[in-house]
Amino acid sequence: MTQTRAARRISVLVTLLVALLAGFLSPGRASAASLQEVIGFGTNPGALRMFRYVPDGLPAGRPVVVALHGCTQDAAGYGTGSGWTQLADRWGFSVVLPQQQSGNNASNCFNWFQGGDIARGQGEAASVAQMVDRQLGDVGGDGSRVYVTGLSAGGGMTAVMMAAYPEKFAAGGIVAGLPYGCAQAAGSPYVCMYVGATQTPQQWGDRVRAARPGYGGPWPTLVVFQGTADYTVKPVNMGDLVEQWTDVHGADQVVDVSDGVAGYPHQVFRGAGGAAVVETYSLTGMGHGQPVDPGSGSEQCGTAGAYLLDVNLCAAYRMGRAWGLEG
Description:
Blueprint: H1 2-25, E1 36-38, E2 49-53, E3 64-68, H2 75-81, H3 84-91, E4 94-99, H4 115-118, H5 123-139, E5 146-151, H6 153-164, E6 171-175, H7 182-186, H8 189-194, H9 201-211, E7 221-227, H10 236-248, E8 257-261, E9 264-270, E10 276-283, E11 290-292, E12 308-310, H11 315-322
Parallel strand pairs: 3-4, 3-5, 5-6, 6-7, 7-10, 11-12
Antiparallel strand pairs: 1-2, 2-4, 8-9, 9-10
Helix pairs in contact: 9-10
């Protein structure tokens, strides 16, 4: 009788050990980790700080997401609040979280409107590019599956990274953000934010092409989220983003798919080959912030807070699905 009980206990322990190891090694079931700061990731001409989140046991060859916070936010709060670190654990990828410093901008906004910070090889854009290189080297990430996203000023800097370093990113996700070169086209960042800039699709596209002279593609695809009641970054900017990036991809501005997702208008613009190149979500009645949907459901993520708005749709989840991160 004693031997039988002992054998059963050993069997149970072995079963538990196998289950634990399976959960530890599976990229989609990595255990919770903690945010870490990385020092010395390059020359860092933009004087930014680099943080990252790498799920425990994450194998090599997994995607990397760069997530840029909005004004008054920081890397840790945005990474958790937006849902990106939660999804990193769920799906198995790492997250790079650049952080602005008050010495660069008193409101901790990324300087998406400053000429010296939005050009290839200069300022904050170069610092973020160096973070990507460091992350890929440290974790053995898949260089063909790097994505960039951000909120507000972070959304503006997302457009900067897509334009100045298109070879580094497969896709971008802009939340309440601005098209590349908008401040220069409008003559002021505030005019850009509140009124928009008068440009044709080709003029918008030319601004992107000028950021990376001689580059022939492929260009990153784009997903955009915008609140219809956003009075900080007006919805006109989503229309300008559509014009800019459809033109860059050589697509027209005719909607190919128009439907609803979680009760919100959703549109898809396809390129000549039939693939989606720009996708938009218009969040009816939402103000300025990142859409989140707190909870434990399969499509839920994020935590409500300042500029993190519970609207029953998690933007990070929708981006991740569009980019194939769950696979």
